């Protein structure tokens, strides 16, 4: 088994998307940390995952930086979920936050909410077409 990182933009192995190779087969890896929590997803296809503290997102929330035209996020939990969903999508795409969140229209993306610890939200974005379920 070998692991590493690879930046899809510059080709550097010192940062970028994590990867895993087992018995000659490549696997896609996504990980996220928030507070004491770590979430890791391994898949045969590109995947992204994100865990966020609802309170932390609420403290730095700026709808002009996050919401695409027509999107809304009324409560702190809605804001946390929107942030986690978008970050998961950007990780799956391989661009991370180099792509502005406002350029991600969640209705056109694939994502799912996962159960998280109290006060945290978790989203995963698997490969494939289709919109996630609100």
UniProtKB/TrEMBL annotation:
<keyword id="KW-0808">Transferase</keyword>
<dbReference type="InterPro" id="IPR037143">
    <property type="entry name" value="4-PPantetheinyl_Trfase_dom_sf"/>
</dbReference>
<dbReference type="GO" id="GO:0008897">
    <property type="term" value="F:holo-[acyl-carrier-protein] synthase activity"/>
</dbReference>
<protein>
    <submittedName>
        <fullName>4'-phosphopantetheinyl transferase</fullName>
    </submittedName>
</protein>
<dbReference type="Pfam" id="PF01648">
    <property type="entry name" value="ACPS"/>
</dbReference>
<dbReference type="InterPro" id="IPR008278">
    <property type="entry name" value="4-PPantetheinyl_Trfase_dom"/>
</dbReference>
<dbReference type="GO" id="GO:0000287">
    <property type="term" value="F:magnesium ion binding"/>
</dbReference>
<feature type="domain" description="4'-phosphopantetheinyl transferase">
    <location>
        <begin position="46"/>
        <end position="101"/>
    </location>
</feature>
């Amino acid at each position: 088994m070998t692991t590493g990182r690879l930046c899809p933009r510059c080709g550097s192995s010192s940062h970028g998307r994590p990867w895993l190779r087992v018995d000659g087969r490549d696997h896609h890896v996504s990980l996220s940390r928030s507070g004491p929590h770590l979430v890791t997803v391994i898949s045969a296809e590109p995947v992204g995952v994100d865990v966020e503290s609802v309170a932390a997102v609420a403290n730095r929330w700026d709808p002009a930086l996050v919401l695409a035209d027509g999107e809304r996020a009324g409560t702190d939990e809605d804001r946390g979920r929107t942030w986690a969903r978008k970050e998961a999508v950007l990780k799956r795409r391989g661009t991370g936050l180099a792509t502005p969140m406002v350029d991600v229209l969640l209705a056109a993306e694939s994502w799912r909410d996962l159960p998280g610890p109290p006060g945290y939200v978790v989203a995963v974005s698997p490969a494939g077409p289709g919109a996630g379920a609100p």
